[in-house]
Amino acid sequence: MNKTFDKILALSMLAWMSVAANLGNVGFIINGLINELQITDPGLKGLLGSSSLFGMLIGAFISGFLGDNIGRKKTAIIFAVLHGISGVIAVLVINPLWFITWRILAGIGLGGILPVLASLVSEYSLPSSRGKRVSLLESSWALGWLIPITIAYLYLGIMGWRVYGLITSIIALILSLSVLFLEESPRYLLSIGRKDEAQRLIEKYNIKLSKHIGMKTNLIAGVKLLFSKDLWKTTIGLWIIWFTITMGYYGLFIWYPRLLSTHGAEIGFEALANYLKTKRLEYLLIITLAQIPGYYSAVLLVDRIGRKKLLGTYLVLTGLSAFILAYARTIDQFLTAGIALSFFDLGAWAALYTYTPEQYPTSIRVLGTGWASTIGRLGGILGPYIVPFLGSWQSIFIFFATIHFIGALGVLTGKELARKEMIE
Q: Which of 82, 131, 261, 379 allows an S-S link to 303, with CB 3.0 to 4.6 Å?
């Protein structure tokens, strides 16, 4: 029987952690770079912060073509090496424009590898455990994010931002090399006619595949299939979900500490704003830790109640948490809603990474997942950008509550494939 936890999942989780670590350290690195070079231009500051996200958009866009045409493993290796090495080099440069350049390259690797790993783990899973396995994969994001935050909490003040950035980037690079030991997807091997290799992996990992695996297709045919009669509603629905959840995640979590400081008097949390000035890293640790049970709740529920119910419910509850935060007037309300926001938002992410790859056949699985992620990255760029224009604390959180409610509607267009074989 196919195990819930195996070599493929373990190695993919290490690579997933590398992505989170290589993105989670950026805020601390940028803060040090801005202070060291005395950068005051708001446009340049914005480019420093958004460069990784621009790169992730590009990476997600091209990952589908590469993953479906040269294979999951080769594509994962290309993106892993790109983000790992670029992340290290970015810390060593002095010129901010070179930093932006290398962070864009790192972002291409970061955005490109995620859809490939999600598809690979899905393709190595039995229907009965696929949801649990992909949710476990996504849960490693919080573990990876904890690496740079914990190191910053313990040592940033001692070692300085550049040494901190170098250490955390090297850790991310080492973790990313786990992809070298992955196996190729047997579904992909069957799609290109390498039946003997596929059969060896099927027997080794005790997985079951449909007798009818679609053959590899070219990009134009793949795009046509994404918008075919059978799949266009699914594609649009997924794009809505990815755009809204990514906009909400980056819009809220990047600005959250800053919002608490700047809007403290408005919401009556002057004491909390003062606390964040001296205990900001502790606060970030608490919020990040709240993500972990959110992930594992998805691990427990995604195969039991189904992807659509879990994803839709968690998106609605994320929206409700944001709405409560808009009008919270006590510390207890504020902390409870903040923890709930983190819990349900990251639980929804775990469900989404399970839900997305299984909506498409093997021939366009990485393409469909990658392009949905690309639309998400557009939302991820737009979310942080528009926050300063939204005005009051209430306006900001009501906006993002509404965004998550809209995202929940996108779930209505997809197929429920919990405990079922993926489509071909």
A: 131
